[in-house]
Structures
1.
Amino acid sequence: MLGKKLREALARLTGRAYVDEDAVKSLIKDLQRVLIASDVNVRLVFALSKKIEERSLKSEKLEALSLKEHVMKVVYEELVRLMGESYNPRLDRHKILLCGLYGSGKTTTCAKLAHFYKTRGLSVALVGADVDRPAAQEQLEQLSKQVGARFYTIKGEKDATKIVKKVLPEIREDIIIVDSAGRNALDAELADELKKINEELRPDEVYLVLSGDIGQIAGRQAEEFNKTVPLTGVIVTKMDGSAKGGGALSAVAATGTKIAFIGLGEKINDLQVYSAEKFVGRLLGVPDIEGLMEKIKEATREQDIKTIESEELTIETFYEQLKAAKKMGPLSGIFSMLGASDVPKEMLQQSEQKMKQYEAMINSMTKEERKNPSLLRSNPSRITRVARGSGCGEKDVREFLTQFERMEKLMNRFKRDRSFRSKIEKLIKGGMPGIGGIF
Ligand SMILES: Nc1nc2c(ncn2[C@@H]2O[C@H](COP(=O)(O)OP(=O)(O)OP(=O)(O)O)[C@@H](O)[C@H]2O)c(=O)[nH]1
Ligand SMILES: [Mg+2]
């Protein structure tokens, strides 16, 4: 399926230690393969690739984002653009005509829409105007009962337009949904019938129902129907089972016709208002762009663990870690949970004033002292000097050193003790925000 392959392609990028031009190019190759397999039109795929390459490598990158995050953001945004827009269905009284080829899901979608509007407090009338298929009226009548909509038709009437003309004045419901007959292709007969129904009904919405498994042909189909009866939207059904759904959505989007709803199953509540963002989010396994960014950060944290061993703890890195910890908010409990009760809670909840003090102390230290704080311990006159230079008491300087030494111990334990290490790794992978920065 498209989603799984896309997630694999993106995981190959996020799994890299760093991202360069080659990495972006190989991601684009992966994307091309995945999208073409989902029957996305080749021209669209190449336009998308070009855009991603340009924006990833040449254009504006936000300061706050790493290149990896930037590339992912670009990919997400361009996929969303490829898949169209978001729809905002009206929720006032209105008339809807559904049209489409055989078996595309019109009748089922009538019921799904009825359910959709009913759950939003509107009353719904379903009109059976498929006069061709033998059990069509019974099918819709059955579904009307199931969703609690009123069913209208004229049994035995062979002219769909006449049915519409006769039942329309009787209908008092807020939403009127008309089911029409399908065909193997949009032939002259169907075109003529649809035009006439359209004229009689004067619908506010004309939705073409098509099945996602026809892939990119959906674009041409939307264009053809649009010439017959101006469409206000397309409903793409069977998105649950189709490997070509992405192809269908992107092709419809490319024609400029809106995708209004998508069908995701046979049941009456398997209908969703279309949102390209949600669709792409689902493909990528994240709720939205923020979710995606969080996922990248998680992946980055996993790499952070790998670099902990080689990272050297100095007064400066310690201070940076404290600052990061402060930003992350209260982490109380995590350390005691790990059995690291020797790291006091206060250490992670330094006041703004304390942080300023620490900064002043660090500024009063020599380069050697910052790299090797034990120099301060072994020579009290150094502590006196730092205290004076920073305007703090000697006690404050010692307290700061104590905190540093505790962190140093914790880090050494992390490097040596495998079970402690795996506990921490589990916590980090479980999404503990930013804890990687503490070490
Ligand atoms: N899996 C899945 N099946 C669907 C979906 N929508 C419709 N179907 C199934 O597709 C088949 C055809 O659906 P109908 O609603 O009868 O299609 P139609 O366009 O009215 O067909 P005709 O009236 O013969 O032109 C039925 O078996 C539906 O249950 C969907 O979103 N997902
Ligand atoms: Mg039908």
Note: The pocket of magnesium ion (ligand 2) is lined by residues 106-107, 130, 136 (CB under 6 Å).
2.
Amino acid sequence: MNGELEFVTTADAKAAVAGREREILDALGVPRPNGKTHICCPYAGHTDKHPSWRWDEKKCMAFCMCSKHDIFAVIQEIAGVDFAGAKVRIAEILRRPDLIRREGCTLLGYAERKRLPVDFLLGLGVRETIGKFGKPQLDIPYRNASGETIAVRHRIALSGKKHTLSEKNARQHLYGLDRLAEARAAGYVVVVDGESDAQTLWHARRPAVGLPGATGWNATRDAAALAELMVFVVVEPDEAGAKLAQRGRALANRPAGAPGATGRRQGSIRAVAALQCRPYRL
Ligand SMILES: [Zn+2]
């Protein structure tokens, strides 16, 4: 967990567990009654010599001489967790990692996770703010070629799905348009998925641009921005990477960039090469 606070909303946990309580009980090691109605109470605090605990499927409640519990309370009793912990256990047992959210994203946490200096991130305009739900988040500015901020994306969690959000109805842009001069000087650019990979390459003094998500590749827009460059696309070993590779190939097959506003054809991309990544752990 790396010190992050994980949580599942009550609504998500209730919806996920509805009708699947027996799976939870099985995973907790609560024996089935095997034709009988009751089992010995599975709670540590109740020494039950005559079976007096039962799970009522219809009422979705556990009844015993000692207590009357819903599935959340049963998990708390048996697993020794609090209500928040019980909700996380439900997501884990039912294999729903998508329901597990993380408590915000701080600049220090992000810097540590990405192994990037805080000062470097501040230099890119990254700022820690407080998000809609009162949790820390990072505002990551997207700048145009002249360095003006044209969009801001919000990093709301260190990990998990949907860790970065665009503003509602915001236009998508490449991340790092203000740094393409470096790419032109080098003759190449590395296209990566997301902001942090681009930041990492910049920190290593490599020219890069980030896509706002693997599906954020827009051939019309990107062909013009990356004109005359040799383009390397970093393909991560996951579904998103596969999508990105597909889009990268489509871009490579475009003989020239889209006509500009004046009708003048912009230069074509020199070549696109896919750099396959292997799963990697620090
Ligand atoms: Zn009991």
Note: Residues 239-252 form the longest helix (14 residues).
3.
Amino acid sequence: MAEAGADAISLINTMKGIAIDIAARKPLLGNITGGLSGPAIKPVALYMVYEVASAVNVPVIGCGGIASASDALEFIMAGASAIQVGTASFTNPRAPLDVLEGIEQFMATEGIDDIAGLIGIARS
Ligand SMILES: Cc1cc2nc3c(=O)[nH]c(=O)nc-3n(C[C@H](O)[C@H](O)[C@H](O)COP(=O)(O)O)c2cc1C
């Protein structure tokens, strides 16, 4: 991707899942499979960000199960230069602001002036 000219890489999207209606003996979803998002995919998303950020020289945008500042900070420490909040916004429309304010609070508490110093810090 980076070799093809990408300025940044965003990951991950949803993961495919399936559920079965045991009474009907059929898949529960009309489309048979569906996209799994939210907290269930966070460890996989973190792993992907960790691996990809180690392999490319363009910024990585982390996404997948981020609902809090600590979730976001995990992605940043794994190598993300920015993060996205998707599913969490459905149950908490303020989630992106909560994440932002929580990061600011963490930085103030820890005496960190520049978040760039946290990017990928858990990889070294
Ligand atoms: C309702 C819904 C719609 C989505 N639509 C798109 C889309 O149109 N294009 C896309 O690339 N990803 C789409 N996604 C995936 C999200 O951008 C995101 O990668 C994924 O949901 C994981 O993040 P999350 O756990 O914060 O939701 C969608 C996700 C959800 C839940």
Note: The chain is about 35% helix and 15% strand.
4.
Amino acid sequence: MTPDARSSPPSAWLPVWAAVRRLVQETADLAFASVCAGCGAAGTALCASCDAALAPHVVRLRSEGVPLRAGLVFGGVAASVLRAVKEDGQTSLIRPLRPALAAAVDDLCAGAAAPGRIDVVVPVPSTRAAFRRRGYRVPEILARGTGIPLLRTLSYVRRVQDQRGLSAHERRTNLAGGLIASRTGAGASALIVDDVITTGATCAEAARALRSAGFRVLGAVAVAATPRRG
Ligand SMILES: [Zn+2]
């Protein structure tokens, strides 16, 4: 190795170091967290009984023609753990949520709605405010864990209001035309990934943006979905 090569390590190693650092941090989080994110029991980040409560139970929905699948009903332990991930920075808890997302992907792809293979997974983008607050993008971390090639192509074309607290109709209006794809799809099959499906408005808008860029949208998957009344 020349002295030059030693003093400037190849930039290809940087993502490896970032991944190692995150793994060390997450292992430490799991080992030293004082309470269970699901039930508050002391001594562990997620107790065995809450871990068992995250066993997938697929929810099937549809929004504006887009098939939606979630691995869990949003409520109880699933809601508490997702809140810990999204609001308390406990990204180590994404790992026990992965089986739910995988079940949603399997269920969608087994159905007639999504024949053929998936070319890319496209995470729903986080709003700038959400990214500033958290410092990480949950749908993107989830999408990365599917093992399917990730494509970050969606972004907001304008400021949208925080969706929390809005009705289904307000969410649709708030988001209409709000997303754009930066790449052309040329017929590539795409699966949209989000963390939680509430009304389906975000996934429907993501599907519209991807379709208008030439992607073939298979549907959208999430860890959990809010149950619908009626
Ligand atoms: Zn627990």
Note: The chain has one domain: 55-225.
